[in-house]
Amino acid sequence: LPTRLHSQVYLLAVVGVCGCCGALRPRYKRLVDNIFPEDPEDGLVKTNMEKLTFYALSAPEKLDRIGAYLSERLIRDVGRHRYGYVCIAMEALDQLLMACHCQSINLFVESFLKMVAKLLESEKPNLQILGTNSFVKFANIEEDTPSYHRSYDFFVSRFSEMCHSSHDDMEIKTK
Q1: Which SUPFAM superfamilies does this chain map to (predicted)?
Q2: CA-CA distance, 40 to 35, in Å (whole number)?
Q3: What's the CA gap between 147 and 168, in Å, rounded?
């Protein structure tokens, strides 16, 4: 019995009482982190995205935290010019938005719109296009209970600016 107790105490010490181990991170953060591959060229890890979607559907009260954490990652990746991971984050957000039609979606939408705004503020046309496409997907979702407290002023202003873009590449200008 004493050796078994010692091994359990040792295991607790090794597993991460120091706080550096991922096992102590909240489950939603681990699930979000797992959708990002080592190499962004590999794209979204589909099986892990399915796990995250299942978790979000099973625990809709966690959806706002999932959105906030994805937003945090996206903002960090935009700042570090890691655009492959930005695309993965937006793909994940789009999939969660389409899959999760529930009462707590309003809290998630705030994080989603914050990330779309961040992409639209970028000087990179490809990020602006990514943000625009995500906003269009969001706008086409029928809400069970519409939220009238959201402000779309920024989006109206930014989309108007983008319509009058003076970008050299006509294809990008059109998108």
Answers
A1: ARM repeat
A2: 10
A3: 38
